[in-house]
Amino acid sequence: ASMFAAIAERYEQAAYLILAAIVFDMLDGTVAKLTNSVSEFGKQLDSLADLVSFGVAPAILIYMAYLHEERIAGSAVGRTGAMFAIVFVMCGWLRLARFNVYQSKMRDSFVGLPIPAAGGTVATFVLFTRHFSMTVAFWILGPLTLALAYLMVSNVRYPKDRLKSVVMAPRNAFRMLALFAVAIGIIHYGFTHSPAIVLFPLAAAYVLFGIAEDMVKRLHKKTAPDTPQPEEDGEPESLPRKTGESL
């Protein structure tokens, strides 16, 4: 539905349909557990649905919304714009395959930007720019698309169940309460005027959180003191000998 809407140049509708797909993607696992219908078939079907909803649909949306006119005009941007959309889809495909094979049992973090977050960032970006009638230059759109594609196949970690433990930790109760109060005020203000005002900043904050946390970890490793190694006297340790064994 989102792809058909994008082709028909109903870009806001196409973006909101991608966001609706994110909601359903969050619910399908819960429904499967409640109905006791968890299976390998469902796992593979979920990945195929994710590839279409958060890989192909956002790629078509961003191509039709920003690159279609350039293609019609025959500019260099129009001729190369499709490559960015294709790279986005391929990286999403690789990210889902890697997750299914190596990371499906990891509960603490996602390795690489989850494809729903990447697709949602594209959708909210379209809503944000069209709400403010912003003309997006290709030199902004191209790096954004490639950056999201790279993050999907990178080793940057994004919080999964770890985020729940941080939020629910008793020692963080007052801090989280204050943050939630501020967040509720901002969200209320945004949704009073238009959801497009707050959705893209929220999506961008999630994307940047993983990058910032990864950079902090790298800096911490560089500044951490080296672990002292035990000194060796240059003589090999004597091997234990059986009782009565001759030298």
Write the layout of secondary structure elements.
Elements: H1 2-7, H2 11-34, H3 40-66, H4 68-73, H5 76-103, E1 109-111, H6 115-131, H7 138-153, E2 157-159, H8 161-168, H9 173-193, H10 196-223
Antiparallel strand pairs: 1-2
Helix pairs in contact: 2-3, 2-6, 3-5, 3-6, 5-7, 6-10
Account of the 3D structure:
- With 247 residues, this protein is mainly α.
- It contains ten helices and two strands.
- Helix 2 runs antiparallel to helix 3 and helix 5 runs parallel beside helix 7.
- The termini are far apart.
Structural features:
mainly alpha, 2 strands, 247 residues, two-stranded antiparallel ribbon
Strand content: under 5%
Distance between the termini: 83 Å
Helix-strand category: mainly alpha
Write the H/E string, N to C. HHHHHEHHEHHH
Largest sheet: 2 strands, antiparallel
Secondary structure tally: strands: 2
Helix content: over 70%
Note the overall shape: globular
* Mean pLDDT reading: 80
As a whole number of angstroms, the C-alpha radius of gyration is: 24 Å
Poorly predicted runs of 5 or more residues: 235-239
The strand line-up of the biggest sheet is 1-2
**Tally of DSSP helical segments:** 10
Gist?
It contains 10 helices and 2 strands, in the order αααααβααβααα. The chain has about 250 residues and is mainly α.
